[in-house]
Design brief:
Structural class: mainly alpha
Radius of gyration: 16 Å
Number of helices: 8
Largest sheet: none
Shape: globular
Order of helices and strands: HHHHHHHH
Oligomer: single chain
Distance between the termini: 22 Å
Helix content: over 70%
Length: 180
């Protein structure tokens, strides 16, 4: 799947369809994240951000997925850094080389950044109005809040409850999701 997504991004770029290339790169970033390569995923997500541009134009749901991907890469890096000795998994050297992220080994910066990125994902997902996107963004935000030792337990419960409610709304096939 990664090879096909990479090729799709290349084709879109050659056709000057930067929005399409951005969508393919976001999907590739999530595929790399699922494969356990958060640094490579972050590099692809950064490329997707560049392809999509910084303007408000574009598909809000794709932008929400982009920012959720950024948060998830930081959360994956945190899990790797904070794992007990012997359980830590090193990313391949090539993956380390592709990372353009200065904060990738700083837990404090990763925690702060993951929360900010997840909050942006929630904001964009709410604007996009896609229940499944809202559920995933809220779940990422709840996870980002959970890794912060100073998190308020009631705030954490509220965020997880919001994620569950959004997931139930998406699963029930609400009107905003039909026809997509």
């Amino acid at each position: 799947a990664q090879g096909l997504l990479k090729r799709a991004a290349e084709l879109r770029h050659h056709q000057h369809d930067f929005s399409g290339a951005g969508r393919a790169l976001v999907a590739l970033g999530h595929a790399l994240l699922d494969a356990g390569r958060p640094s490579a995923a972050r590099a692809k997500l950064e490329a997707a951000r560049d392809a999509l541009g910084d303007g408000a134009a574009g598909d809000l749901s794709v932008r929400a997925e982009l920012w959720r991907g950024f948060a998830e890469t930081d959360l994956a890096r945190l899990e790797a850094i904070c794992a007990p000795p012997g359980e830590q998994e090193d990313e391949p050297a090539l993956d380390q080389d592709t990372a353009t992220d200065d904060s990738r080994d700083d837990p404090a910066q990763l925690k702060k950044r993951a929360r900010g990125e997840a909050e942006e994902a929630v904001s964009l997902a709410d604007q996009a109005g896609v229940p499944s996107g809202r559920a995933l963004a809220r779940l990422a935000l709840a996870r980002a809040i959970a890794v912060n030792e100073t998190s308020d337990a009631s705030l954490l419960r509220e965020r997880f409850r919001a994620a569950v409610e959004a997931a139930e709304e998406a699963h029930s096939g609400s009107p905003g999701e039909k026809g997509r």
